Amino acid sequence: MPARTGAELGRIVAPQTVRVERFLPAPPDRVWQYLTESGLRRRWLAGGLMEPQAGGKVEHLFRHAELSAEPNPPRYAGFADSPAMPGKVTVWEPPQRLAYSWPGDGGVSEVVFELSPDGAGTRLVLTHVRLADRDTMVSVASGWGAHLGILDDVLAGRPPRGFWSEHARLEALHEAAFAPAADTARETSP
Fold this sequence. Notes:
seven-stranded antiparallel β-sheet; globular
């Protein structure tokens, strides 16, 4: 597995908005399949229906135990076998752009995937908008980072990294990176 650094961290790019960028070792058409086809999406995120059109239905069936051998921590016990979470496709432009209302919060927020060729692979830019607060942004950026790490592993033919240990590692890094400005100023003042 390649060494990971802070380069995979999400960033706050606007109020209530985080962005995570990744290079993925597959062309955009192949990455698009992993974003939109239930059986492939299930290998790194969540299975479930996705109707291939703007206005179509999308659902996520989270089964984190299928992503890696790590058990769900008690805090996330409810994600062991989630019910279908519905959302709506808002943008369908294969294989460059996909967006949908996020099923995990009842469609309040929206996730946007932008794919562009990058050598033999794909540059994926994921932007998640209308997030409730800083704690949600930390959790969302960490979750996307862990899920996209598994997608990277799957596309590269590597065994998937541990989802929950990766989530915890990224969560600690995002906690520090997304620290409120007042806390940061206090920590750096003499």
